[in-house]
Amino acid sequence: MQLSKFTDYALRVLMYISRPREMPYTIAEIAQDLHVSQNHLVKIVHFMGKQNWIVTSRGKGGGVRLKPEALFLPMGEIVRILQGGQPIVECQTPPCVLRRHCGLKGLLDDAVEQFYQNLNQHTLADVLEPINLGTPSQNSPIALFHL
Q1: Among 22-26, 33-37, 70-74, 105-109, where is mean pLDDT lowest?
Q2: Predicted confidence (pLDDT) per residue in 2-48, tens digit
Q3: Strand, coil or helix: what is 120?
Q4: Cα–Cα separations (whole angstroms), residue 112 to 80, 86, 119
Q5: Is 56 in contact with 63 (CB distance < 8 Å)?
Q6: Any residues with CB less than 8 A from the CB of 11 and at least 6 apart, and which?
Q7: CA of residue 10 relative to chain centroid, distance
Q8: Angle subtended at Cα 6 by Cα 11 and Cα 122, rounded to the nearest 5 degrees
Q9: Model-level pTM?
């Protein structure tokens, strides 16, 4: 299974904006640092905002922030949503003459489900590098991680 560019970039954005800071992240800075087009990132950020994973604000001082609860989302569910439920094998277009006697699709569908279940054993926070704990004020879930 191969992740789509959309999924790849979205995961990178989630990890990137997980680093705590005062000002929100801007699309322009994320695009520059991740080497992704701003137009593509606008679509990704819009989608993730609809999923309620991030908060976006417009205007001066606006930008993108990770919702703290997003750190605890299962990675399999994040990837499944980003991938959009694309089947690993398409048997209908064009119609496959082997589909009446084929067990491959079911086998591959099971493998994909196991992939998601394996990812679900981890959260977004799990894939971020922990930093040294300092003062107690840094003990918020977001303050514990950086790239």
Answers
A1: 105-109
A2: 899 999 999 999 999 998 888 999 999 999 999 999 999 999 999 99
A3: coil
A4: 10, 10, 11
A5: yes
A6: 3, 78, 79, 82
A7: 5
A8: 30
A9: 0.81
